[in-house]
Specification:
about 500 residues; alpha/beta; Rossmann fold; ten-stranded mixed beta sheet; two-stranded antiparallel sheet; 17 helices
């Protein structure tokens, strides 16, 4: 199951800091009966069979520390299956990112999730503040997004590094001019409090939650703030809240190197299914070098090393995408960039007319609002060289991604993360071959929460539910019956 787009080339890996939190106050303090939201049939979304999709808007404080001040609107979707019986309540989803649309994902989830789950829960998706339909952050032009993506992924010379840094600086200045200090309200801490408002608005006494990737961080912050309000929480693709931006980015560099090594090993035995030859890493080196010299083109659009690199990153999230990556590399080597563009565009939400979603704007706004301490440009430059040596394909670019918050304005609003004392067992799911949220973070997050229970999938790709029968049955039983799997349960790859 897809969990939405995740930005890597300019994504700051999530950071953590301990800070005091102000919980929702006023009308959101206590649960209220359902019906507080004005649900109406959704427009412009494909409706799954035997399902009703309704949409609503929830108004929340722009800053929960000032609940009587300015407000913003959150877009919500409710998917309710026909013939629902023994309803438990609502299952609130977050697909990750940050920056991915929970409304779109919930509509998809309602068509792809196990029926036994859909029969027991209303599925609630929401676009987090600043995302998609929820008072979106929009301050980076499509042209600037194209330029940033096409840019050299590993600028070696000082001049090339300065050019890339100037792009990040321009984006920061543009967004600062539009939003100023208000950028800090798009933080994870504020969004966790929005989830509490959603729980109250849908009339649930306690929260049932499923979060993927960044959604595990969001769920962990909520559980720390509101442990007594959690019924069940599945955190799939764990983020370690205690890692700072640098440590998180390095973890991703290691994770993507491992995933590419696994892809290359598959290529050696896949025959014609992997038309890049027996040494995929050498092929990628040659393809990137060619893209730097004379990129393949489709009309006025050139498949620079930046576009090729993004296609590689985007294809490593799921093992099922490996054959398409192999074909894309073979095609662009032969002068046809169509598959490279298709993969990269899908990853960043770019349509055929060159128009982007606000994924990148929101991703940067959330990550930088969360960041308690940003490295300097000089520190990034030093890390670029160090990580290139340790992680030859991905290290330098993950270091360069740290520049996004170096030049980001608007102040910071770091979240608190820690024990969820008083909560029920929280199910933390990890995949051995996960490139974006490396498996090592799974037991770490479970231990940090104190009530975490680890479920391991011995497979490849980013996130696990509902990839196999073992994982699906364990998660469904937990969400429906509140029975967590035995400690340290491992599900086989197939």
């Amino acid at each position: 199951m897809s969990t939405g787009n995740r930005s890597v080339a300019v994504l700051l890996a999530l950071t953590a800091a301990l800070a005091g939190c102000t919980g929702p106050t006023g009308r959101w303090d206590e649960p209220k009966p359902g019906g507080a939201l004005a649900w109406t049939p959704c427009k412009g979304l494909r409706v799954p069979a035997n399902t009703a999709l309704d949409c609503a808007t929830l108004t929340v404080p722009q800053d929960w520390a000032q609940p009587a001040g300015a407000t913003l609107d959150l877009a919500l979707l409710r998917a309710r299956r026909t013939g629902q019986r023994d309803r438990i309540g609502s299952l609130v989803l977050n697909p990750g990112g940050p920056g991915s649309s929970g409304v779109d994902y919930a509509a998809y989830f309602a068509s792809a999730a196990p029926v036994e789950l859909l029969r027991r829960f209303d599925v609630i998706g929401f676009d987090p503040r600043g995302v998609g339909r929820s008072t979106p952050v929009e301050c980076v032009s499509d042209a600037d997004k194209d330029a940033a993506t096409a840019a050299e992924p590993d600028p070696v010379s000082d001049a090339a590094f300065a050019e890339v840094a100037a792009q990040f600086r321009k984006i920061g200045e543009t967004c600062g001019a539009k939003y100023g200090n208000a950028l800090k309200v798009y933080s994870t801490r504020q969004t966790a409090q929005d989830i509490e408002a959603i729980r109250v608005a849908v009339g649930d006494e306690k929260l049932s939650y499923l979060g993927y990737s960044y959604g595990t961080l969001l769920g962990a912050v909520y559980a720390h703030q509101y442990p007594g309000k959690v019924r069940a929480a599945v955190l799939d693709g764990a983020v370690d809240p205690d890692k700072d931006a640098v440590a998180s980015a390095e973890g991703q560099a290691a994770g993507f190197e491992r995933a590419f090594t696994n892809f290359a090993a598959w290529c050696r035995t896949a025959g014609s299914t992997c038309p890049v030859g027996p040494d995929a890493r050498a092929t990628v080196d040659r393809v990137l070098a060619a893209a730097r010299r004379e990129p393949a083109a489709r009309g006025n659009r050139k498949a620079t090393a930046g576009w090729v690199f993004l296609a590689i990153v985007g294809s490593l999230y799921q093992r099922g995408d490996w054959p398409e990556l192999a074909r894309a590399l073979a095609d662009v080597r032969g002068g046809n960039p169509d598959r490279v563009f298709a993969i990269a565009d899908g990853y960043y939400g770019r349509d055929a007319k060159g128009r982007y979603s606000n994924l990148l704007d929101a991703n940067t706004a959330v990550n930088c609002a969360d960041s308690a301490k940003d490295p300097t440009a000089d520190q990034v430059r030093a890390l670029q060289g160090q990580w290139r040596a340790k992680y030859p394909l991905f290290g330098a670019n993950l270091a360069i991604g740290l520049l996004s918050c170096v030049y980001w304005p608007g102040g910071r609003d770091p979240y608190a993360a820690g024990a969820a004392t008083g909560s029920p067992p929280l199910l933390v799911v990890g995949t051995r071959g996960d490139p974006a949220t490396p498996y090592e973070q799974t037991p770490t997050l479970a231990g940090l929460l104190g009530t975490g229970r680890v479920l391991t999938w011995d497979g490849e790709g980013h996130t696990a539910y509902p990839e196999t029968r073992c994982v699906t049955e364990a998660v469904n039983r937990y969400l429906i019956e509140l029975v967590a799997p035995a400690p340290d349960t491992v599900c086989p790859a197939t």
